[in-house]
Amino acid sequence: MTTRCLKVSLALLLASAPAGAADPWTHYTKEDAPGLPGNEVQYIGPAKAGGIWVGTLEGAAQALNGAFSPVKGEKGSALKLNIWCVLETADRTWLGHQQGALELRDGKQRDTLAGYTVAPILEIKPGILWALGKNTGTDTTTLFECRENAWKPIEAFAKRRLTNVYQTKDGRLWVTVDG
What we know:
By secondary structure, the chain is mainly β. Helix content is 0%, strand content 51%.
């Protein structure tokens, strides 16, 4: 299978017209779609409430039926973070970004894993999370585990150059190592 990456300046294209329509694409930008925080999309993934999560270099939003609901800071201000991943668990939402991970729970926010660019964040089992963090100062990566709201490095992967972690539907974990 060949994978191709194309650099595009468009923020988000969604197939929204019926098959066979002349132009089945809808183009969204922050200028014409209120709630879309930015035009440089880094993440797209499913939202539990339906629709999708969109992570941009200027924040995150949920999109449902063409309407975007941005994630805001605790005081209602814009969330100005480069969002690289979103994970929804039973009782909270996690946003991996360029300065750590942001935990959203019951209307409150908590920053964690400061100093790391975090992506992805996975729920390995209920209440157990893994996150890959790239240290912004040393350019090294660490695999972290979160139990009972405490993040700790996973020692089995210390001193390795990790590039990604993925969990298959059958529960197997795949960790890629550079070199």
